[in-house]
């Protein structure tokens, strides 16, 4: 009689010391757990071997990306229960990794090993990054950006929708109504207003993606925009969009590292969702270089994901799954650290706006887009890559909702020696779409 699911559930509950708040369906067809609970599908014994050899986020990610694990029902509900019960350390709970190392867990661990079967650990899925060389050199940054963004423009069209904006949208209405495209338009407009863009000004968009910010600024505000990216695929797509809209006289798209931009001064710089790739060791260099590219009185809008500060900063580690499958070499800093580095570079920080809840809404829309066209996405980018994006975006939505990470727009000025910042006495005058 098939019994893998009851055995697995019993062993996990022994390890956790509490009832497992999930239903399990195993490779032999057996099921165990509350019938109304979200279901974790363990498709083969290989999934257990992955979790035993890497009992943390990376083992879970490898099993998911390889298709060894799946979900029936609400992915968010499964992630919440796994995160809260198995992977995160709480005040009165241990992670599964901690438990597996506990001498008192040996009997249950032996039971898991027996259930997993005698075999060597499976090789990581091919989507996993193999790190080479030093962090945040020009070469390593190009390689990391290519891994994430050169997945295929058609794939990103599915996820992002017509706006082709790959950063947090902004819902201007009192309630999160409206389409994703409207919210992305309002985010771009919000950035333009914070930067006080007017006809004839020069804008540098650092990490320009598929060109949406540069095109919006040129079309709606009459600026001359330069967008830079390290992705060849993004640049080719953006240039075609610019040409199709008749903006080639006002928008230039370059494949260029921010460290190599030398044609300042600019009136304004937008950096939207790019600074997470810079790295702590290079952040002051990044901020200083952008400061030098601005004319006196010029503004920087730095839109960046932030992590919560640690009591012991030396204990901070990069998320294993994100680092291996999504954003290689990416680093998140606390908001206070970012502001300090901008000020050290010479900027006067004038406004900080947290839009954390907006990113959760954005990510849920992206997940819905991907799920609606999952088969086509898998044909375009591969089933493994599609599973990576679905997991990372759903988990990130929960992280923003639970205040585990945040996202902030920091407006900073290269204030001239006269001290005249050029900002109004009441700075929050950049409302976009009126409700």
Automatic annotation (TrEMBL):
SMART domains linked: PKS_MT
Every Polyketide synthase-like methyltransferase domain range: 155-396
Pfam family name, one: CMAS
Keyword S-adenosyl-L-methionine found: yes
InterPro entries membership: CFA/CMAS, CMAS, MeTfrase_dom, SAM-dependent_MTases_sf
Domain of life: Bacteria
Record's keyword terms, sorted: Lipid metabolism, Methyltransferase, S-adenosyl-L-methionine, Transferase
Stated family: Belongs to the CFA/CMAS family.
Name of the molecule in the record: Cyclopropane-fatty-acyl-phospholipid synthase
